[in-house]
Amino acid sequence: MRGVKQTVALTVLAAIMTALAGCSGGGSDTEGGGDRAAAKWVIGMSQCNLGEPWRVQMNADIRLAATAHPEIEVVFKDAQNDNLRQRAHVEEFVSSGVDVLIISPKEAAPLTPPVREAFRAGIPVIVLDRRVLGEDFTCFIGADNRKIGRAAGNWIAGRLGGGGRVVELKGLMTSTPGQDRHSGFREGIEGGGLEIIFEADMQWLEPEARGEMESALARFEDIDLVYAHNDPGAHGAWLAAKAAGREQDIIFVGIDALPHEGRAYVSRGILEASFEYPTGGREAIETALEILNGEQVPKEITLRSRLFTRENNDSGGEWLE
C-alpha cells in the first residue's frame, strides 16, 4: 500500500510539473517586477526546454527574483529541446534589442555561434548551467558538475563497501553537465572495486531512463546501485525496477535535489541520496542587475552544492567541500 501511495503522489507531482511546463512552454511569456510600464530594461531568457522539473524551477526562480525589481522586464522563451529553435530565439532577442540575454543552452556547439554574435553585438550574455564553447560571453553561472560527480562516486563507493555492480544512466552527453557528471563520477569510484555493468544516455528524461533501465534489468540479474545524472533519471529507473519487482534490491542515487522532487524522493525512500544542483536563477537576475547598473561582474560564478540523504534531509543536507 505504501508503494501505491508513493506512486499516486509522484504521479500527481509529475502532472503538476507538466502543467507548469505547459503554461510556460511553447512560445514566450513576460514577467517583470510589477508595473511593466515602469520597466526600463528588458532581459531575454532563453530556456532550452521545460520538460524537466529542474528547468521549470529555474524559470520560477528567475521570475521570483525579478518580481522584486520593477525596473526590469523578463521575456521567457522555451526552445522545447530544439537547438535550431533556441538559436532562433537568441536571434530574436538580439533583433529586439534586449538589454541582457540569459541563456541556458541545450548543447554547447550548436548554441555557441548565436551567443557569440549576441555578445559581439554588445549585448551582455549570462550563460546559465550549461556552457558554450570559448569565452564570448559576459558571465557563466553554475555549480561544479565534475565536483558533484566525484562526490557522488565517493559516496557510492563508500556505500557499496568495496564492490558492487552499478548502472550509470547519463545525461545528454553532448552537454557539458553530462560530460562532467560522468567524468567526475569515474574519478570518484576509482579504486573502489565497482563494476559498471551497464551505461546509457537517457538525455536527462525520465521516460528514456525508464526504458534504458528496463534493458539493464532484462540483461542483469544482479544490480546493486543505479547512479543517474539527474533525479528524474533515477526515478525513471526506480519505476522500471518497481514494475519488475526489484526496487527493494537496488539503491538509487540522483542529482538535482529539488525540494519537491529529489528531496521528496529521498524522504520517501525511493532514492538513498540526491546531490543538489542549484538552478542559479536568483543569481542570474542579481548579476544582470549589476551589469545594467554598470558594475563589473566575474567571468564565472560557481554555486555551492549539498548532499541530501534520509538522515540529513530535514536538517538541510551536507555541504560539499
What report would you give on this structure?
The chain has about 325 residues and is α/β, with parallel strands linked by helices. The chain has helices at about 1-25, 55-65, 85-95, 110-120, 145-160, 175-190, 205-220, 230-245, 260-265, 280-290; strands at about 30, 40-45, 70-80, 100-105, 125-130, 140-145, 165-170, 195-200, 225-230, 250-255, 275, 300-305, 305-310, 320. Strand 4, helix 4 and strand 5 (about 125-130) form a beta-alpha-beta unit. Helix 2 (about 55-65) runs parallel beside helix 10, helix 3 (about 85-95) packs parallel to helix 4 (about 110-120) and helix 7 (about 205-220) crosses helix 8 (about 230-245). The longest helix is centred in the N-terminal third of the chain and has 23 residues, at about 1-25. The protein starts with a helix and ends with a strand. Residues about 1-25 have low confidence and may be disordered.
What is the succession of H and E elements? HEEHEHEHEEHEHEHEHEHEHEEE
Helix content class? 40-55%
Strand sequence of the main sheet, in spatial order? 1-3-2-4-5-6-12
Please outline the major beta sheet: 7 strands, mixed
Number of helices in the DSSP assignment: 10
Structural class: alpha/beta
What is the rounded distance between the termini?
A: 40 Å
In terms of DSSP E residues, the strand content is 15-25%
Summarize, please.
By secondary structure, this protein is an alpha/beta fold. The protein is 43% helix and 22% strand.
